[in-house]
Specification:
The complex is a heterodimer of chains A (about 375) and B (about 90). Chain A has about 375 residues and is α/β, with parallel strands linked by helices. Chain A contains 13 helices and eleven strands. A five-stranded mixed beta barrel of chain B has the order 3-4-5-7-6. A two-stranded antiparallel ribbon of chain B has the order 1-2. The chains are: A alpha/beta (about 375), B mainly beta (about 90).
Chain lengths: ~375, ~90
C-alpha cells in the first residue's frame, strides 16, 4: 500500500479588498498553480482533484477540472465549511492507499461580494433559511454569543480570558505576511472593540476575506505524514448545549491511533470561528487536563506562548469561506517542513489540526481532527 | 398564541425544528402539540439592528432559537407564539 504524504501546500494571499476581476474560481485556479510550484510537480502528474467552496456553485469540481486542465481518476466536492479540509484529506488519503489515484490536489477557497456573503449566511441550510434568517439572527453571531455566555458561566471565564487567545493569535499574525490583521493588538484594544452581540465584540468575529488554500497529497515522495485522522458528524443530533464539540468524542481514538498524546504535539491548529469554539476544541483535545481554562490561557497560551493557530488563525488571518477548513493544515505543513519564516516553531515534529463547523441549528454538527508528522 | 412543537407519534420525543426520522426511535409519523410557555436559557442582542435573540426551553423539552420581543434574562418565563415558522417569545 502506498505511503500517503502531503507533499505541497500553498495559499493565495487573503485580502479584504480583492481586485474587480477576482472570482471564487480564479482564486481556486491561482491556488492550483501555486501548489504545483510548491510541490515541484507538473500538472500532468495530477490524477485526482478535490474542491471545497461555498460560492463555486453552480460550478463543481468537474467544471474546475476542465478549466485548469486536470484529467482526474478521482474527483470530490465538499462544501462542509470548517471540516472540509480534513474531510478532503481523509478521502484523498484513502483513495491513494486503495490505488484510485496517485497524486491528488485539494483546493478550498471563496470570494464573497457584498450580496454574496449575506445570501450565503441566510441560506446556509434549509433550517437557517426557515427558522433563523427570519428572526432575523443576521448570521451565526448571536448563536455563538449565547454559547460563549454559557461557557463563561460554566467555566468561570471573563472577556479578558478570551482576549488572551485573540491577542496571542494576533502576536503570531504579526509574523505572518499573509495575515490580513498583523498589527500588534493589546488586551485593552480587544476589550474596547465595539459590541456585535454581547458578550461577542468585533475582535471575537472573523474578518471575511477572499482567498484560497491548497494541498498536494501523494503516494510517493517525501512529505508530511498523517499519523491519525478521525471524524464525527451529527454527533449529538443538536440535542446538547454546543459547549462540547464532536472533537471530545474522537480525541481518545485520535491519540491512540497517533501513538502520542496532546502533550506531545509541537504545533496546534484549532478551528477558530469564535474564541469560545477554539477554546472548546483545545479542551476537547485534552490540552486542559485540569479543566482550568483560564489558567491554561494565562500560563500556557500567553506566558509560555504555546503554538496555537500560529498563522494568526482565522481571527487574524481571515476567513475565506471554505478555506477556513484548510488554513490550519497549510500552516501545520509550513511548520512541519521548517518553512514558517519568522513564526517557525523550533523542532516542530508533530502537529494536531482540527475542523469544526456546519451550524445545523444552534451550533456546529461536524468535527474532525488529524495528527501530522514532519518528514 | 402558541408554538407548534413536533412530537414523535410512536415514542413521544419532542424535537425542534421538525426532522424526518425521530432521533430516539426512528419513527416517521409526527403530531404537533401547541406550547404556550417556556423559560429563557440564553439571550443576546444584535448590536446592528437591536433584534433580541434567545434560547427558550419549551415545556416539552426542546431548546428553540426565538425572536424575543423585548429584553429578557436567563430564567425568565416567556409566552410563546410563532411568526410563520419562527418562534417568538414575549416576556411575561
Amino acid at each position: 500500500m502506498p505511503e500517503v504524504r502531503i507533499v505541497g501546500a500553498a495559499e493565495v494571499p487573503y485580502t479584504r479588498h480583492p481586485a474587480d476581476d477576482v472570482s471564487t474560481e480564479s482564486l481556486l485556479a491561482d491556488a492550483f498553480v501555486r501548489v504545483l510550484a510548491d510541490a515541484g510537480i507538473e500538472r500532468s502528474a495530477v490524477d485526482g482533484l478535490g474542491v471545497a467552496s461555498f460560492m463555486l456553485p453552480p460550478d463543481r469540481a468537474i467544471d474546475l477540472a476542465w478549466k485548469i486542465g486536470v484529467r482526474a481518476r478521482w474527483l470530490m466536492d465538499d462544501g462542509n465549511g470548517g471540516v472540509s479540509g480534513i474531510q478532503l484529506l481523509q478521502h484523498a488519503a484513502r483513495a491513494i492507499e486503495s490505488g484510485d489515484a496517485t497524486t491528488i490536489v485539494l483546493l478550498s477557497g471563496d470570494h464573497f461580494d457584498a450580496g454574496g456573503f449575506r445570501q450565503m449566511v441566510d441560506r446556509y441550510n434549509i433550517v437557517t433559511e426557515q427558522y433563523l434568517a427570519k428572526i432575523p439572527t443576521g448570521g451565526p453571531n448571536p448563536l455563538f454569543a449565547m454559547i460563549t455566555r454559557k461557557q463563561m458561566d460554566e467555566r468561570g471565564l471573563t472577556r479578558e480570558d478570551y482576549g488572551r487567545l485573540v491577542v496571542a493569535q494576533r502576536r503570531w499574525a504579526t509574523l505572518n505576511p499573509g495575515a490580513v490583521y498583523r498589527s500588534p493588538l493589546t488586551l485593552q484594544e480587544y476589550l474596547d472593540a465595539p459590541a456585535v452581540a454581547e458578550p461577542l465584540h468585533r475582535l471575537d468575529c472573523v474578518p471575511v476575506v477572499s482567498g484560497a488554500d491548497a494541498l498536494v497529497v501523494s503516494g510517493s515522495g517525501d512529505g508530511v505524514k498523517i499519523r491519525a485522522l478521525r471524524s464525527l458528524y451529527n454527533y449529538d443530533g443538536q440535542r446538547g448545549d454546543g459547549l462540547r464539540s464532536g472533537i471530545a468524542e474522537i480525541a481518545d481514538d485520535l491519540w491512540r491511533d497517533a501513538g502520542v498524546g496532546p502533550e506531545d504535539v509541537d504545533v496546534i491548529s484549532v478551528y477558530d470561528d469564535y474564541p469560545a469554539m477554539a477554546i472548546a476544541q483545545l479542551d476537547d483535545l485534552g490540552l486542559v487536563p485540569d479543566g482550568d481554562i483560564a489558567g491554561f490561557l494565562e500560563h500556557r497560551v500567553e506566558e509560555e506562548r504555546l503554538p496555537v493557530n500560529t498563522s494568526g488563525g482565522q481571527l487574524s488571518a481571515g476567513q475565506a469561506g471554505c478555506a477556513g477548513g484548510m488554513i490550519g493544515l497549510v500552516e501545520a505543513f509550513a511548520q512541519l517542513t521548517g518553512r514558517a519564516g519568522g513564526r517557525q516553531v523550533e523542532n516542530a515534529r508533530l502537529a494536531v489540526v482540527t475542523g469544526y463547523g456546519m451550524v445545523l441549528y444552534r451550533y456546529g454538527g461536524c468535527a474532525n481532527a488529524v495528527v501530522l508528522e514532519a518528514p | 398564541m402558541s408554538l407548534s412543537i413536533p412530537v414523535c407519534a410512536a415514542c413521544g420525543e419532542a424535537t425542534f425544528p421538525r426532522l424526518f426520522l425521530c432521533p430516539s426511535c426512528a419513527g416517521t409519523t409526527w403530531r404537533y402539540e401547541p406550547v404556550e410557555r417556556g423559560h429563557v436559557e440564553g439571550s443576546t442582542v444584535n448590536a446592528r439592528d437591536g433584534v433580541h435573540v434567545g434560547l427558550v426551553r419549551v415545556a416539552l423539552g426542546p431548546l428553540v432559537v426565538a425572536r424575543i420581543e423585548g429584553p429578557a434574562q436567563v430564567g425568565d418565563e416567556v409566552a410563546l407564539d410563532q411568526d410563520g415558522l419562527v418562534p417568538v417569545a414575549r416576556p411575561i
